[in-house]
Amino acid sequence: MPPENKAIKMRSLILILLFFNLSATAQQPTKENPYQLDLIENVAEYKQMIAQNEAMQVVDLKSFIPSLVLDIRYATTNNFTNEVVYPEAEAFTRFPVAVALKNIQQELEKSNLGLKIFDAYRPYAATLRFYELYPDTTFVAAPWHGSRHNRGAAIDLTLIDLSTGKALEMPTPFDDFTKKAAPDYTELPDNVKRNRNLLISIMEKHGFKVYYAEWWHFDFQGWEQFPLMNLSFDELRSQQ
Length: 240
Known about the structure:
The chain is an alpha/beta fold. The chain is built from 7 helices and 9 strands.
């Protein structure tokens, strides 16, 4: 074989080995993304996403719906982790989700009722922590799939009486991981079932679906279109 052909063959072999080495390195799991999910992880990616589709924009719910009451449990120790998971008590969702919630709030106010929000968008890092502490995928999202909260397309909430500010009686407290939390659990007082059914019916009327194990958790129709994100509340706030 002529020397120039040997050199070409050797260069080709080196390029092939380099390609496979880089591919293997790129595919290695990291602490922040151990299951190698397709995550929006920085503001530049987020801005590019909403430039292509404005529906992907994430909205500060309290600014968008001032009459909402926030009780963001993961910004306190009053949650199943007994840890402060979020540095701020804030709630964000995708724009279409926020519009639907605004319509629900306006309809409820006609009956002197309102929404209290427990949780909305959740960074993927929190989903990893939740599973580490409580590895039961009935009540905690599987981190190898990610949560619909990570997509900004899920909401945890309840109803309140606007006259008193008190929450209506529901089957369980928030984050109660028992069979009583299921939206079809029947061994309850009639008034509690009415309250739960009222919440579910108005949410479903406006495009949400209740999660089968938690009366407080609702997924927005079309949640699949929104990518998983691991942006902090600070990063989202900077884009409002």
